[in-house]
Amino acid sequence: MSHQLRREQLEHIGAVIVVGSGKGGVGKSTVSVNLAVSLARQGARVGLLDGDAYGPSIPMMVGVRKRADAKAEVILPLAERKDLAVEKKIPPLQRYGIKIMSVGFFIGEEQAVAPIADALGMLIRQLLYSVNWGELDYLIIDLPPGTSEPQATLCREIALTGAIVVTTPQEIARVDTAKAVTMFQRAHVPVLGVVQNMDGFVCPHCGQTAAIFPESHERRQQLDELPLLGRIPLDPAAVTNGDKGYPIVVSLVDSPVAVAFEHVAAQVVQQIAARNAQASEQQPTTLPDKEEGHYERED
Ligand SMILES: Nc1ncnc2c1ncn2[C@@H]1O[C@H](COP(=O)(O)OP(=O)(O)OP(=O)(O)O)[C@@H](O)[C@H]1O
Ligand SMILES: [Mg+2]
User: Fold this and answer.
1) Higher model confidence: residue 250 or residue 283?
2) How far is CA 42 from CA 14, 39, 45, 97, 137, in A?
């Protein structure tokens, strides 16, 4: 527990949740956007930070498209700015009831950011501290695939409330997602649970569910022991709506995918509440006898 306590607690933010997977293309950004919007629809104050600087998907998924000369090199202006006055901070974009920030808001959608060693760790700090997030109940961070940066900086420096891992049913995705679980567990970041995405296809004609990807029956302890936060079916409408900037929980509220995302959001709220209750139970309820009633808490 002590390693958690040394990490930076983000001011005015109730819970910081990272959404990751060892695997690319499994739906991390889709889950992040729809989870953030679902939580906001339940009345929470929510921020969404795109942690993927080299392949930011959040702008398109929330309807922000920026054209620019794709060949022009983009070098990120990096600077450590922890103590910025509120009026100097960057205002996040407000859409669908959430506050959003992404490197993709500043560059053309086909432009590539120049690779710089160690840039991603510094960049994520900059986005956390230089954006005027205000008071939030939840900040959702959409991670790039893999287990390097900015994952390492976040796990090492920031007091993360928990991680959600996203996988698809195939064994090859589950293997990589298990790696991400191991990374979080080694860093003592609580893993809140797994979202199994693209889990079956609901036929729009007959309503029956068909498996698109063969389900793996191989046990993977790291994944199987975690709470299953939800299974999201595959629906082409999720892509068309996502590409047009309409999260499916807004555009097709009664669709099986939207209902599944609402369920995931409710599970996440429940997991965090259970962990908070457990943490407060572990706090001493009576003060130990000490001279003159002075008691210094050691947390
Ligand atoms: N349940 C779903 N049904 C249909 N399409 C989906 C579903 N979930 C995600 N997709 C689509 O799959 C593609 C990849 O999704 P997404 O960008 O969310 O994955 P990712 O894990 O964030 O990818 P990356 O690793 O590149 O960051 C997108 O086109 C998205 O619209
Ligand atoms: Mg993504």
Assistant:
1) 250
2) 16, 5, 9, 11, 12
CATH level 3 topology of 12-280: Rossmann fold (3.40.50)
pLDDT at 292 exceeding the cut of 60: no
| Per-position DSSP letters for 133-181, written without gaps between them | --SEEEEEEEPPSSSSTTHHHHHHHB---EEEEEE-SSHHHHHHHHHHH
Q: How far apart are CA 159 and CA 156, in angstroms?
A: 8
Quick one: which atom of ligand 1 is closest to the CA of 199?
Answer: 1
Each residue's pLDDT tens digit, 140-193: 999 999 888 999 999 999 999 999 999 999 888 999 999 999 999 999 999 999
H or E segment to which residue 197 belongs: strand 191-202
Name the residue among 130, 112, 29 with its Cα closest to residue 76: 112
SS3 label, residue 198: strand
121 in a known ligand binding site: no
What residue spans define the domains of the chain?
12-280
Question: For 196-205, what is each residue's pLDDT tens digit?
Answer: 999 999 887 8
Bridge partners of residue 101, in order along the sequence: 49
Burial (CB count within 10 angstroms: exposed 0-12, middle 13-18, buried 19+), residue 5 = exposed
Q: What gap in Å lies between CA 120 and CA 150, rounded to an integer?
A: 5
101: part of which helix (H) or strand (E)? Answer: strand 98-101
Q: Note the pLDDT tens digit of each residue in 85-110.
A: 888 888 999 999 999 999 999 888 88
Instruction: Decide: helix, strand or coil at residue 230.
Output: strand
* Average pLDDT estimate for 115-137: 88
Ligand 1 atom closest to residue 33's alpha carbon, by position in its atom list = 18
Pocket of ligand 1 (CB under 6 A): 24-30, 52, 55, 57, 144-145, 197-198, 232, 234-235, 238-239, 242, 257
